[in-house]
């Protein structure tokens, strides 16, 4: 506008205090919501974690279905102590959930809702402050316009009329500005006083509710620690982890697995024409560990193969057709005679299998695969179809559906 503006240090200080109060209530409300959501997520995660641990030690993971109701059980370590620890952990976590959930629900009623109600009050006050600013702008505009006319040396009749009109506008603007200015200066200190009687008790309530939740959590977790299932609780986490890893030699054992060394096959060279010999890859649940220091090759070239008939896989060569999906192995003299299959025979995948060479059929555990061709030997390569794709896969990765 180019004129002077009114400065009111007293009101400016009150406005700063009001903004601080508004920001504090917003932070308290936001923190309470985030804490509530985080506690609910933690309780849900603990319950889910217990279920995952149950799955890890589930003895049924060591079984495979052979058809006709027969079940083949693979030898597994004794996880009875681990299962007891998991069951105890699951029980404690359920107790934690039952004890803490009601406390978490109280955060909404005793912290979130009151702060939201207080924020609605502050929004009404904020509208009054905005009106105060608008009236101050009108007041300064009319005051500057009147001063400009009054300072004019040679005023015309038109200037006199404008000055008279501006005096009326200034009087109205002054009255309205002083109304909002005096109202806010009078009432804002009361609002700040009631803040200590409203917001601070909510803040204290929130603090004590957190303390109670952590106390309940500590009591239940201490009972879990004292159960005796966890032998390294008296040591730092990293130190205990390193000790367990050294005792079990998990890393060394995994690195020694032929399945992880070669992924269960040797990729055929271009000169070999993609022919494949050797045993089918071992299922993930029963990998072979090399302990003799001599590397056992899962697959060898066909001209040097010396494996026994029960461990060898008949070679297959892709056809000369254009299709790269259907790769059923052609009949070979030493290949076992395929069994005649009834229409639409299916099997279910016991493990995940990723294609190791062109013509393989990839699938995931529990996929239902249509069998196109198979032999009597489950350690052989079978031909199947899944999601419109046809290819070969290891027979010991699936179970026939009766």
TrEMBL record:
A GO cellular component annotation in the UniProt record: mating projection tip
Domain BAR: 1-237
PROSITE patterns given in the database record: BAR, SH3
Protein transport in keyword set: no
Domain called SH3: residue spans: 342-402
MF GO annotations: calmodulin binding; cytoskeletal protein binding; identical protein binding; lipid binding
GO BP: any one term: regulation of endocytosis
Region (Disordered): 272-339
Keywords tagged on the record: SH3 domain
Keyword 4Fe-4S: no
SUPFAM superfamilies xref list: BAR/IMD domain-like (SSF103657), SH3-domain (SSF50044)
InterPro entries: AH/BAR_dom_sf, BAR_dom, BIN3/RVS161-like, SH3-like_dom_sf, SH3_domain
UniProt-recorded name of the protein: BAR domain-containing protein
């Amino acid at each position: 506008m180019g004129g002077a503006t009114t400065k009111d240090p007293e009101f400016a200080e009150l406005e700063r205090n009001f903004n601080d109060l508004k920001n504090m209530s917003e932070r308290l409300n936001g923190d309470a919501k985030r804490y509530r959501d985080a506690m609910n997520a933690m309780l849900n995660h603990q319950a889910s974690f217990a279920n995952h641990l149950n799955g890890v030690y589930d003895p049924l993971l060591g079984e495979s279905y052979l058809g006709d109701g027969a079940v083949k059980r693979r030898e597994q370590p004794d996880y009875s102590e681990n299962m007891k620890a998991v069951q105890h952990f699951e029980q404690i976590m359920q107790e934690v959930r039952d004890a803490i959930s009601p406390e978490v629900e109280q955060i909404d009623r005793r912290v979130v809702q009151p702060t939201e109600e207080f924020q609605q009050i502050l929004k009404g006050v904020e509208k009054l402050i905005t009106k105060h600013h608008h009236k101050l702008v009108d007041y300064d505009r009319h005051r500057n316009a009147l001063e400009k006319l009054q300072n004019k040396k040679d005023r015309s009749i038109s200037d006199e009329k404008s000055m008279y009109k501006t005096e009326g506008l200034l009087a109205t603007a002054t009255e309205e500005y002083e109304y909002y200015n005096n109202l806010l200066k009078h009432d804002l200190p009361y609002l700040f006083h009631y803040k200590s009687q409203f917001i601070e008790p909510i803040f204290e309530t929130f603090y004590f509710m957190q303390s109670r939740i952590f106390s309940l959590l500590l009591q239940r977790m201490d009972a879990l620690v004292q159960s005796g299932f966890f032998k390294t609780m008296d040591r730092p986490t990293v130190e205990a982890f390193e000790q367990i890893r050294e005792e079990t030699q998990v890393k060394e054992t995994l690195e020694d697995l032929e399945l992880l060394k070669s992924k269960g096959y040797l990729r055929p060279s271009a000169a070999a024409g993609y022919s494949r010999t050797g045993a089918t890859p071992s299922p993930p649940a029963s990998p072979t560990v090399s302990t003799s220091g001599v590397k056992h090759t899962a697959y060898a070239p066909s001209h040097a193969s010396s494996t026994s008939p029960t461990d060898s896989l008949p070679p297959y060569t892709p056809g000369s057709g254009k299709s790269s999906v259907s790769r059923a192995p052609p009949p070979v003299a030493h290949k076992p005679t395929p069994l005649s299959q009834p229409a639409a025979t299916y099997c279910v995948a016991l493990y995940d299998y990723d294609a190791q060479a062109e013509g393989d059929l990839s699938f995931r555990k529990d996929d239902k695969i249509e069998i196109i061709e198979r032999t009597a030997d489950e350690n052989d390569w079978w031909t199947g179809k899944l999601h419109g794709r046809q290819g070969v896969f290891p027979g010991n990765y699936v179970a026939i559906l009766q």
